[in-house]
Amino acid sequence: MTLDDLKPLFEKAHFIRAFEHEIAALSEAGDVPGLVHLCLGAELFEVALCANLEGPGDQVTGSHRSHGLALAMGADPVAVAAEILGRTGGLSEGLGGTQHLLAPEVGFLTSNGIVGGQVPLAAGAALSAKTLKTGGIGVAVMGDGATNQGAVFETMNLAVALKLPLLFVIENNGLGQSTSAHYASGGISPMARARGFGLAASHVEGGDITGCLKTVDRLVSWVRETGSPALVEASVPRLSGHYHGDEQLYRSAADSQPDPLEQFEDTLLRAGATATECHTIKTGAHAAAKAAVTAANQQADTSDEAVARWATRLGGAA
Amino acid sequence: MTRMSIRDALNRAHQDLMAADDTIVVIGEDIAGGAGVKGGAELGGVFGVTRGLGAKFGEGRVIDTPISEASFIGMATGAAMTGLKPIVELMFSDFIGVAFDQILNQAAKARFLANGRFDLPLVIRTTMGAGDSSAAMHSQSLYGVLAQIPGLMVACPSTPADAAGLLKAAVGSPDPVVLFEHKGLYGHEGDVADDLPAVPLGKGRLVTEGESATVVALGAMRHAAEAAVTSLEARGISIDLIDPRTIVPLDLTLIANSVKKTGHLVVVDEGTDFGGFADAVISAVARDHFGALKAAPVAVTPPHTPIPYGRAGEHAWLPHADTITAAILALLDMQETA
């Protein structure tokens, strides 16, 4: 991986970071209808993951915390922001909102309001790819909180039993809302469980761009070539609350973790980038994110018209 | 025209559909049967509906699953979002409990949440119905529960032609469709046109035509009601018997036009007594056509209890032709004395 390969990923990761900060600011200003779950801390890993995927042949499903994933897969930032803001021009004209982002056109099949609910859906994308011989794979991205859900265990088994080209991705930020992942799983790691299901599995550190790219590439290639499922667990920090506005009284200062984007910048500097270059990339990404979110915020809320069309369509009477 | 059972009509419809469209896959437990077991014959599903499909279309398109309803119904939903047309067999509708998130939140809402950017050609075939002592967890008629969820189409065929035709319509529908097949009717025979024509969702059927009352019934209850109607003919009472065939969307026009003629409404429902299909029909008619009613509408339903096991208990629990006859007579008497 050369410096020139890494710079666009650095830019994209900073775009996502800035996008989330812009959304947070609009949330505080009262412009966002719902609670938003920001992906701060997971940007580097998500960018590395999606750099190895190609929609719409590959299809990713994600959790409630999926703004960054949708952007990393290439969804139009203005449409993503407009959806989060519940406005016209949103991915679904504001019918879905922050937790229900769908951009299957670019390979982001759906995010989800139900913890773990997105995981079986990715098995479906894998089944389609296998049956229709598209060469694509399904990717089920979830947090550690989802790893105790029955539907997730069932899908791990199903993917092995049916030999589905499905990559399970666990973003382990150590917290399911306020509950520690260690507590919630009795101290058993996702990796140990994955191996119990017979899944090829690897762990990556979410601040290690080179390691993330290498491991994801290896597992994605393996899933693609063998048609069999695999799992990657990424340790990522949760640099914000469960939702924006969460006071996090349950967290102590002691669990503060390094910021993967700072680690990414150190990697670039060590590889020969200059501080000025990094600064320029960041400034550009921040300006682009601000422009996209601002453009979305200028759109009107026409979700009442959008829902009216569905009321006619889905009414119980013929 | 060929005379065949509902089981055979459904099997023929699967064969026709799968031969015509490579993107149709069938998914469920034991639907080919004997997966991983050496030797032995194909099971074809516990009711034999999918028999022969595995041999004909192969294990890539007739997919036996682990007993794992949440994952395979979710997988089918995701597959329908990405280019396949899955027909899922959920062995008993009682099992929706273990898969409910994937039906309630995923399959039902996906098209809405995408604002219609994709179709969701997912069909879930499942079984319902009491009468064979399968008891509380293998007998429920849960169409009312699913009909309450926006985004799902729900149908309940009662004849071989309707079973095949509704399956065809369901596969062609942009919205997910749940077909409730009555276990007691798989052997029920009827005439079926050779090309198994599709039956449009939302179009009810006037089974018998009359003047005295409107009776709405579906699934096995349609046949019980038909027997009641026949017994009343001898007493000079004629009935509009309507089999709505689909619950969502519901052919309220057919029902309303009949009630405007008869002024009397009886709904027979094997689902639950509270907040179910019968209540929905009665509520819709009362709201929109109150002036046409000559007497309070009547719901003939089982009591609001789980389904009992013992033969006498189950017989007492289920509505029968004589229960329906009595309800119609009581309704008409009420009108005469009013």
- Count of β-strands of chain A: 8
Low-confidence stretches of chain B: none
Name the overall outline of chain A. globular
Q: What is the SS-derived class of chain B?
A: alpha/beta
The biggest sheet of chain A amounts to: 6 strands, parallel
Helices and strands of chain A, in order, run as HHEHHEHEHEEEHHEHEHHH
State the separation between the terminal residues of chain B, measured CA to CA.
48 Å
- How are the strands ordered across the major sheet of chain A? 2-1-3-4-8-7
Q: Choose one word for the global shape of chain B.
A: globular
| Gross CATH architecture of the largest domain in chain B | 3-Layer(aba) Sandwich
Provide an overview of this structure:
The complex is a heterodimer of chains A (318) and B (338). Chain A has 318 residues and is α/β, with parallel strands linked by helices. Chain A contains twelve helices and eight strands. Chain A has helices spanning 3-28, 43-51, 67-72, 77-85, 118-131, 150-162, 181-184, 190-196, 209-226, 260-270, 275-297, 303-314, and strands at 59-61, 108-110, 138-143, 166-172, 175-176, 179-180, 200-205, 230-235. In chain A, the strands form two sheets. Chain A has a six-stranded parallel beta sheet with strand order 2-1-3-4-8-7, sandwiched between helices. A two-stranded antiparallel sheet of chain A has the order 5-6. In chain A, helix 6 (150-162) links the parallel strand 3 (138-143) and strand 4 (166-172). Chain A is globular, with a radius of gyration of 19 Å. The model of chain A has no long low-confidence stretch (mean pLDDT 96). Chain B has 338 residues and is α/β, with parallel strands linked by helices. Chain B has two domains: 2-192, Thiamin diphosphate (ThDP)-binding fold, Pyr/PP domains (Rossmann fold), CATH 3.40.50; 205-337, Rossmann fold (3-Layer(aba) Sandwich), CATH 3.40.50. Chain B has helices at residues 6-20, 53-57, 69-81, 96-107, 110-113, 143-147, 160-171, 220-233, 252-262, 277-289, 311-317, 321-337; strands at residues 2-5, 24-28, 62-64, 85-90, 123-128, 153-155, 177-182, 189-192, 205-208, 213-217, 239-243, 246-248, 265-268, 298-300. In chain B, the strands form three sheets. In chain B, strands 3-2-4-5-7-6-12 form a seven-stranded mixed beta sheet, with helices on both faces. Chain B has a five-stranded mixed beta sheet with strand order 9-11-10-13-14, sandwiched between helices. Chain B has a two-stranded antiparallel ribbon with strand order 1-8. In chain B, strand 2, helix 2 (53-57) and strand 3 (62-64) form a beta-alpha-beta unit.
